[in-house]
Amino acid sequence: MKKLVFHSFGGNDVLELTESTIPQVGENQVLVKVAYAGINPLDWKTRNGDMRMVSGKKFPKTLGTEFSGVVTEVGNKVSRFAPGDRVAGSMGMHGGAFSEFILKSPKDLIKIPKELDLKSASVSVVCGLTAYQCLVIKGRITQNKKVLINGAAGGVGTFAVQIANILSADCWGTSSQENHAYIEKLGCQHVIDYNIEHWLDALEGFDLIFDAVSKLSFHQVKPKLNKGGIYVNTLPGPGIFFQQIYTSIFSSKKAKTYLLKFDPQDLQWLFNKMMDGKIILPEISVFPFESITDALELSETEKVKGKLIIEIDPQLA
């Protein structure tokens, strides 16, 4: 089977598509033939070494956090899944989804409803869960709360705008001018061009600032938060970890960061909203497995509208 690996931190030149043996299934494991795997900023940040605090320094490493596919084999203690089941799941912070086959614990998988296709499910794992958990669990969003989503036209931002709208929050979002109509259509009531210099200066009174692209800092946004307001970013690091601890004790305004937690219940909520037509998927760009470096290069521009995914197995798609 083909699998993406790398043996040192660096650019796309360190990545290799190698041949590997299909893993043997343990008694409480599920073997999945991968159809799609999502591209996320975490991938190139891990490849660069920016996430070594989380990923560690041991090589070889792999990339790819989310996937969808079809179960081909299960261990003799697995009862929730069977060969032929269509599933989506997470590889956690250490990756591994950029592979033709992956071996997972049942707790890291969810069955895909028949109303959704494999492509739709693969898009929802990281972007959908990140948006939901940052707004609802970290950000404690409720009706009429004033929320700012920085990077509202990206994969995570697209989900975040719609979740804020579903929960009847007062949704503000930033994007480039060319994407304003797109996020307004998704339900964003107030749209800001982040290319305008000092765009943040005129804003105030937010209960939650969700920095989906991690381009702001708590120091910048703290004056823009109400008492009890929360800032959430998606890039763990020493600075934000310290601020998270400090503000949890000494400040009425909180700084928080986020690590993906695969929760089937949260993902089922997203699937339900998708099936009800209340969440529209972000625009999807599909790349073949052999062009994965092109997708990573595009992701690194940080100007992607919607979501990039890799088609691992065209026959399953």
Features of the shown structure:
2 domains, 9 helices, Quinone Oxidoreductase, Chain A, domain 1, Rossmann fold, 15 strands, single chain, alpha/beta, 7-stranded mixed β-sheet, 6-stranded parallel β-sheet, 317 residues
Describe this structure in words.
This protein is α/β, with parallel strands linked by helices and 317 residues long. The chain has two domains: 140 residues, Medium-chain alcohol dehydrogenases, catalytic domain (Quinone Oxidoreductase, Chain A, domain 1, Alpha-Beta Complex), CATH 3.90.180.10; 131 residues, Rossmann fold, CATH 3.40.50. The chain is 28% helix and 26% strand. The chain has nine helices and 15 strands. The strands form three sheets. Strands 3, 4, 5, 6, 7, 14 and 15 form a seven-stranded mixed sheet that branches. Strands 10-9-8-11-12-13 form a six-stranded parallel sheet. It has a two-stranded antiparallel ribbon with strand order 1-2. Strand 9, helix 5 and strand 10 form a beta-alpha-beta unit. 43% of the residues are buried.
